[in-house]
Amino acid sequence: LMELVELHSAGAPGVRQIRQLTIGIVERGYHLLVGLRRARHWSSLRPASLQATLRSLRAAFDVVVADVDADVDGEAQTGSVEVEERNALARTVMSRAELVLVVGQPNMKGVYALVRTLIDLLEFGVAPQRLLPVINQANGAATTRSELGRAVRQLVGDAAGGSA
């Protein structure tokens, strides 16, 4: 990721250059772009270069899937430019994604974290129709899964003032 973002600070690389920075997972039919090697490397990711990188990835591939944390706080929420810069990757991806999967576990802590994340993303500006909650490892009857989904919708709706 760092190398691809750096390429964009010097201009727009071609599709071939972009694909060369990915690892082809032939047996599964996709390419993998490795993320940051160290958490501290976030400081090398400039927002304009990140936006250009995402545009280039979308042009180079039919589908782009990004696995990012939901850390979308910025200067407006925290008073810190540094926090916004640290969260630039998640903020860039979340603001431009066609679909955002938010994954949680089927227990009290997991549902709480799922609901909190959905609310954070709604407050950040992700449209409700672009959010898809996923309750991972929800074994059991369809009615149990349905009840979990209904509870998540109710909790998000209540906390978001009915806007979800």
SSE inventory with pairings:
Layout lengths: L1 H8 L5 H6 L2 E3 L4 E3 L14 H14 L14 H4 L2 H6 L1 H9 L3 E5 L3 H17 L6 E5 L6 H18 L5
Parallel strand pairs: 3-4
Antiparallel strand pairs: 1-2
Short synopsis of the structure:
With 164 residues, this protein is mainly α. The protein is 50% helix and 10% strand. It has helices at residues 2-9, 15-20, 47-60, 75-78, 81-86, 88-96, 108-124, 142-159; strands at 23-25, 30-32, 100-104, 131-135.
What does this structure look like?
The chain is globular and about 50 Å long. It is mostly helical. Helices cover 50% and strands 10% of the residues. A two-stranded antiparallel ribbon has the order 1-2. The chain has a two-stranded parallel ribbon with strand order 3-4. The model has no long low-confidence stretch (mean pLDDT 87). The longest helix has 18 residues, at 142-159. It has eight helices and four strands. α1 packs across α3 (47-60).
